[in-house]
TrEMBL record:
Higher taxonomy: Bacteria, Bacillati, Actinomycetota, Actinomycetes, Kitasatosporales
Gene3D superfamilies: P-loop containing nucleotide triphosphate hydrolases
Homology family: Belongs to the ABC transporter superfamily.
PANTHER family noted in UniProt: ABC TRANSPORTER ATP-BINDING PROTEIN, ABC TRANSPORTER ATP-BINDING PROTEIN NATA
GO molecular function ontology, one term from the record: ATP binding
Main location: membrane
Subcellular location: Cell membrane
Domain ABC transporter: 11-239
InterPro entries registered for this protein in UniProt: AAA+_ATPase, ABC_transporter-like_ATP-bd, ABC_transporter-like_CS, ABC_transporter_ATP-binding, P-loop_NTPase
Membrane topology field: Peripheral membrane protein
Official protein name in the record: ATP-binding cassette domain-containing protein
Keywords associated with the record: Antibiotic resistance, ATP-binding, Nucleotide-binding, Transport
Amino acid sequence: MTAESIAGPAIRVQGLEKSYGKLEVLRGVDFDVARGTIFALLGSNGSGKTTTVRILATLLKADAGTASVNGFDVATHPANARESISLTGQFAAVDEILSGRENLVLVAKLRHLKDPGAIADDLLDRFSLTGAGARRVSTYSGGMRRRLDIAMSLIGNSPVIFLDEPTAGLDPEARIEVWDAVKELAGNGTTVLLTTQYLDEAEQLADRIAILHQGRIIVNGTLTELKQLFPPTTVEYVEKQPTLEEIFLAIIGGDDESDATGTNN
Ligand SMILES: Nc1ncnc2c1ncn2[C@@H]1O[C@H](COP(=O)(O)OP(=O)(O)OP(=O)(O)O)[C@@H](O)[C@H]1O
Ligand SMILES: [Mg+2]
């Protein structure tokens, strides 16, 4: 490990651009993620969240700009960057035919770790999957699958973890279980970048929240800072804090192309 990889933010993104043909998805994205923090990237469908994560995970090349993970530039040092990360994609990557435990053992073996069985048992325990460990994943609920998926991404103790919509499609109870797992991760010093469309998820988990909209980060701050951006409330609302959802809509709502104005009179 070089000195460069020890100092500085866990993730640094500067001027990132990416187009698919004529579709300009990222048009100059900038953000930093401090070590050991949870950073939530919010955005509507198609705003470029997965594209950003895929670039950071070295699965996709940017057209312009730079991105580094754990101090390693993803374009010039992709192998070092990859060693620093773990990715849980938008769609679960578990093998349905194997049991939960077998999935974990497989990943530990692929990562050439000692005692894969013990690693698997420890993770099953941490994610409340011990009882289901021997069962085929095809019998798991969505929440159990997601937890297993996240558990798999923890094998090898990567300093930086990407979670692309970790709770998409889960019921409220399963979401809370995943949130607890993510909080535990960050509590142990792992840096977490998660993407989500669920604003309450960002509100619950993130130290900082950035909103990706029309190819750029239009807001980046703590929840408290974001709340200060919310337009001053009227007398009727003095007792109510704006939810992140209201802040989000207030911030991105202004440039809705089909904006119908003056409907309140
Ligand atoms: N390989 C590709 N080829 C062409 N267009 C693509 C490709 N991948 C993504 N896109 C387009 O780029 C845009 C951004 O996609 P991306 O998956 O990054 O969005 P997202 O914010 O993750 O959306 P979602 O919330 O639906 O997951 C979308 O309009 C998508 O259709
Ligand atoms: Mg996506």
